[in-house]
Write a structure and sequence with these properties.
By secondary structure, the chain is an alpha+beta fold. 30% of the residues lie in helices and 18% in strands. The chain has a single domain (45-309), classed as Jelly Rolls (Sandwich), CATH 2.60.120.620. It has 13 helices and 13 strands. The radius of gyration is 19 Å and the shape is globular. The chain binds 2-oxoglutaric acid. 2-oxoglutaric acid binds next to strand 4, strand 10 and strand 11.
C-alpha cells in the first residue's frame, strides 16, 4: 500500500534522482536549448512540451528514397543493404536480411545461456534486461559498428545505444509504440533493433507490426487521461494505454504484418511504429531474440508513463 503510494508520488522519486546526478545531467543542455526550466532530478513528461514546436527528423520530413542515395555513407553500403533501407520513410521499419552471421548468433546465444546459468542475468518477467551492461558480447552486438552506421543513416544523426532486452520466448506483448517507454523531445528520437537469434514461425510468437503507423500522432498520457497532477502520476493501468492503441488501430486500416525472421535477420523500427508479440503457441519451442534501443544524442530523454527523466549509464566498448 505504502509502496504503491510512493510509486505514484513524484517527490519520492525526485529525491531518489538526487542521488543519480551523473546519469541524469545529459538532459540539462537540452532543457536549456528548448527553454525548459527543470532540474536534472525533476519529473518530466509530454505535459512540459505542450505548445512547443517538435522539429521532425530528416526522414520524417523528407522521403528516404530521395535523400539516402545522396549520402556518402549510404553509397558505400552493399547494394542489397541500400535497397533494404530506401522504404524507411514510408514504412517506419526496414529488414536487414542475414545481418549477423551464424557464428555471431551462436556466440550470442551461448553468452545468453552463460549469463542465465551463472545467475548474472537480470530478469524482469520474461525479459533479460540491460545485458549490455554486464556482457561484452552483448555490448558488441548492440553497438555493432555496421549496425550503428545504418541506424545513424536512417535517423540522419548520431545515435547511442541505450538498452538491451533478451527474450527466450515470445513476448506476447500487446501492440504498443516504444515512444511511451523511451520518450523524447523532440518526438521520434529513438530507434529499435530486433535481432533474430533463431527463426520465428506461427508457433513461437513472432513479432507483429503495422507498416506506416509511425506517422500517427504520438500517444501520450493526456490521450488516455493519465496526466496526473503536480505531485502524483496518473492512476491508469498500462492496459488502458494498450486499449487506447487498439482503438487508434480500429479507426485506421493499417496492414498487420508478422515477422517470419531467419536467424541473424534484423528489423529496425521507428520510435512510433506500432508493434507487439503474437501468442507463443508451442511452449516447447524457444524464440530467442535481442532487442536494442538507441537514443539520439541531441534529444531530451524520459519515460512518459512514469514521468521520469531517463537514467543513462555510460557504456564503454571493450577494446
Ligand atoms: O519481441 C517481441 O515480441 C516484442 C518486443 C517489443 O515489443 C519491444 O521490445 O518493444
Amino acid at each position: 500500500m505504502i509502496s504503491q503510494f510512493l510509486r505514484k508520488f513524484k517527490p519520492a522519486y525526485e529525491a531518489y534522482n538526487l542521488l543519480k546526478r551523473d546519469q541524469l545531467v545529459h538532459n540539462l543542455p537540452k532543457y536549456k536549448k528548448y527553454g525548459i526550466e527543470k532540474n536534472y532530478y525533476s519529473s518530466i513528461s509530454s505535459k512540459d512540451f505542450v505548445g512547443l514546436d517538435s522539429p521532425l527528423n530528416i526522414h520524417d520530413r523528407l522521403n528516404s528514397r530521395d535523400t539516402l542515395p545522396k549520402v556518402a555513407a549510404f553509397k558505400k553500403l552493399a547494394v542489397q543493404r541500400q535497397e533494404e533501407l530506401l522504404s524507411w520513410s514510408e514504412n517506419g521499419y526496414v529488414i536487414l536480411k542475414g545481418f549477423f552471421s551464424p557464428e555471431r548468433v551462436k556466440q550470442i546465444n551461448k553468452e545468453v545461456e552463460h549469463l542465465d546459468e551463472s545467475k548474472k542475468a537480470q530478469w524482469v518477467g520474461n525479459k533479460m534486461m540491460f545485458a549490455i551492461h554486464y556482457s561484452d558480447i552483448m555490448l558488441r552486438a548492440g553497438a555493432d559498428p555496421e549496425l550503428m552506421k545504418i541506424i545513424d543513416l536512417l535517423m540522419g544523426k548520431e545515435m547511442e545505444l541505450f538498452q538491451s532486452i533478451n527474450f527466450l520466448t515470445g513476448s506476447e506483448q500487446r501492440t504498443h509504440s516504444d515512444s511511451v517507454h523511451m520518450s523524447t523531445f523532440p518526438y521520434g528520437n529513438i530507434i529499435a533493433a530486433w535481432i533474430a537469434l533463431e527463426s520465428t514461425t506461427h508457433q513461437n510468437g513472432p513479432l507483429h507490426y503495422y507498416p506506416g503507423s509511425h506517422k500517427l500522432p504520438y500517444i501520450v498520457n493526456s490521450d488516455y487521461d493519465n496526466t496526473g497532477s503536480n505531485y502524483f502520476l496518473g492512476d491508469k493501468d498500462y492496459s488502458v494505454y494498450e486499449d487506447k492503441i487498439a482503438s487508434v488501430l480500429d479507426e485506421h486500416h493499417f496492414e498487420r504484418k508478422l515477422l517470419f525472421a531467419e536467424s541473424g535477420d534484423v528489423l529496425l523500427w521507428h520510435s512510433n511504429l506500432l508493434h507487439g508479440g503474437e501468442p507463443h503457441h508451442d511452449k516447447t519451442l524457444t524464440r530467442k531474440s535481442l532487442v536494442t534501443h538507441y537514443y539520439a544524442q541531441d534529444a531530451i530523454c524520459f519515460h512518459e508513463i512514469t514521468q521520469r527523466p531517463t537514467l543513462k549509464r555510460k557504456l564503454i566498448l571493450p577494446k
